[in-house]
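User: What would this chain look like folded?
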Amino acid sequence: MKVTYQTCCGVDVHKSFLVATIVKTTGGIEPSYQKKRFSTFNNSILEFKQWLLDNDCHDVCMESTGKYWVPVFNLLEDEINVVIANPKWVKAVKGNKDDTKDSKWIGDLFRLGLVKGSYIPCKKVRILREYTRYRYKLVSCRSSEKNRYQNALTVCNVALDSVVSDIFGKSSTSIIDYLLEQSGTSINHEEIASKLLRS
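Assistant: Here's the prediction, encoded as structure tokens.
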């Protein structure tokens, strides 16, 4: 089988550590292996990066395991070609799960061009995605809380939406504040009337 990468690295990433195996094919059919373990702290990932460069390894493959691959990818991508593989494309061939063997298997498959890489957008697009997703989450939370607020008014028999054009407007807020302050006392309806009230 044709060798796609003469020197490459397979990486098995976990929450607190990663195991990397550099696979080198020089002359003979049988490749040589260099295996090393690193923690997933930034300084250790940078040591991993330097280890790769020192061994003239510029092609790396790792599984897209949860979010654990992201910080590793972020610190490597500027100088190293990093391929992120869907686990199903690797596990289907790897067989039994073993931390000490997984990185070697990934490296072997990658060396022969048997790993299909996932699409990873550029850094600017990834950052924009994070901001967009977070904004969507905040908007969804706001909508949920608005519904909760309206339901609370309905349960308390405060039919504010029947007399105001915007239940979350300034006038509505003033009315609710007044009702809360005057709780248990007689309410002066003229005092809380506003120009936004419906006729």
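The CA atoms of residues 177 and 183 lie 10 Å apart. If you want, I can go into more detail on any region.
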